[in-house]
Amino acid sequence: MLRLLSLAAPALASAAATPPFCRSTPSDASWPTPSEWSTLNDTISGTLIRTVPVASSCWPGTNGTFDSPLSCQEVNDNWSNGTWHSQQPESIDYQLYANNSCLPDEVGSYSKAQGCKIGALPQYIVNTTQEADVAVAMKWAADRNIRIVVKGTGHDLNGRSSGAFSLSIWTRNFRNLTRDATWKPANSSFPAEDVFIVGSGQQWGNVLKFATSQGRIVTTGQDPSVGLGGYIQGGGHGPLASTYGLAS
Q1: Confidence (pLDDT) at 20
Q2: Given this model, what pLDDT does residue 54 score?
Q3: Which residues does 218 contact at the CB level (< 8 Å), separation at least 6?
Q4: What is d(CA 58, CA 60) in angstroms, rounded to the nearest whole number?
Q5: What is the mean pLDDT of residues 126-150?
Q6: Would you say 174 and 198 are in contact if contact means Cβ atoms under 8 Å apart?
Q7: What b/e string do you get for 216-229 counting C-beta neighbours within 10 Å, with b at 16 or more?
Q8: Per-residue pLDDT at 122
Q9: What is the DSSP-derived secondary structure letter of residue 125?
Q10: Domains of the chain
C-alpha cells in the first residue's frame, strides 16, 4: 500500500503542476507578446481592441494603465442600463462575472478595496464586421491555447459573455436582417420556408419591429436589447414562451 502511494504521489504532483486543460494566461511564457498582438490586429483589418474597463475613469490613478474614453459621471448615469452595457465592447450586464472589479463609485456593490483591474473581463476584443476576420482570430487564439469567449450584448445570466485571460469575439456588428419567403437548404428535398435571416449580433427589439412590419411574430426576450445569438443558444424565455416554448 505504501509503495502504491509513493508511486502515485509524483504523478499527482506532476498533474497538479501542469494541468493539460489549462489555457494560457498573461503570466505564462507562452502568452503572446505585444508585438504578436499587434500582428494579429494588422491581420484582422485593425479591429483588435485592448480591454479598458469602462468605469476605470472613476478610479483616479489608473491613467497609464487604463484610459476609458467615458467620463465617470456618464458611467454612473448609465450603469443600470442594459442597452448601454451592450454598446460597450467589454462590458457585461451582470458584473459579478467580472468579479465586481472596477465598479463606478455610485453603485451599491462598489468597494474601494476591490480596486480597478481587468479581472474576469477579456484581455482583448475583436470588433470586426467580417466573418473571415473572426475565423482568423479564433484560429490564432486556438493555436496559442488562448481562451475564446463570444459577446453579443452581454446579457448572459451564466456569465459566458466574458472570461478571464480570454480573446472576446464581439458579434455586435453582424446585424443583417432580411426576409426570404422561398428559403431552403442547398440540395434539400424539403419544401421552401418563409424565414427571416438575421445576424447573431442583432437585438430582438429590432427583429420584433421588422417582424411586425411583415405581419409576423417572433419569440423574443423580455428586454428588447437582448441579442439574438445568445438568446437562441441559451434557451431564452420571453412574453410568448408560454405559447411557443423557449428559444432553442
Answers
A1: 47
A2: 92
A3: 196, 204, 207, 208, 211
A4: 6
A5: 96
A6: no
A7: eebbbbebebbbbb
A8: 96
A9: E
A10: 34-170 (3.30.43.10), 177-244 (no CATH)
